[in-house]
Amino acid sequence: MRDHTKLRAFELADQLAIAIYKGTATFPREEQFGLTSQMRRAAVSVPSNIVEGCARDSTSDYVRFLDIAFGSLRELDYQASLAHRLGYLADYESLASLLTETSKVLAALIRSLRPPKT
Predict the structure, then answer these.
(1) Pair 99, 72: CB distance under 8 Å
(2) Which three-class secondary structure state does DSSP give residue 14?
């Protein structure tokens, strides 16, 4: 079993989840069950899937959960961009930077675990 707390990808995803919760706290009330909920679910999905993947025995299962985490991360990236364009996110630049860094680190982890294609 792998220790997720030692992964940089997990650390960044955890920071991102906290930043999303704080960033969405000021969204309009009518977005509570819309964009706010969607963004929070996607944000929590990223570190959650990293943790679940770490608990799997096989590398292929581990990578599958990392792939799911990466998909949620890309979904969140779009949602944050949308929220910014709607005028809901005040500090989008730092959030976008954290999204980019998390994406790069997670993608590198996935690449390092995937067997080379022949």
Answers:
(1) no
(2) helix
How many angstroms separate the CA atoms of 106 and 33, rounded?
Answer: 29
Tokens 């977005």 correspond to 31
pLDDT digits (tens, 9 = 90+) for 78-104: 999 999 999 999 889 999 999 999 999
**Token pair of 4 as six digits:** 């997720």
Instruction: Report the amino acid identity of residue 98.
Output: L
The four Cα atoms 84, 82, 77, 26 give a dihedral, to 10 degrees, of 50
> Which domains are seen in the chain, by residue range?
4-113 (1.20.1440.60)
Q: Please, are residues 50 and 14 in contact by the beta-carbon 8 Å criterion?
A: no
Contact yes or no for 11/105 (Cβ under 8 A):
no
15: pLDDT strictly greater than 80: yes
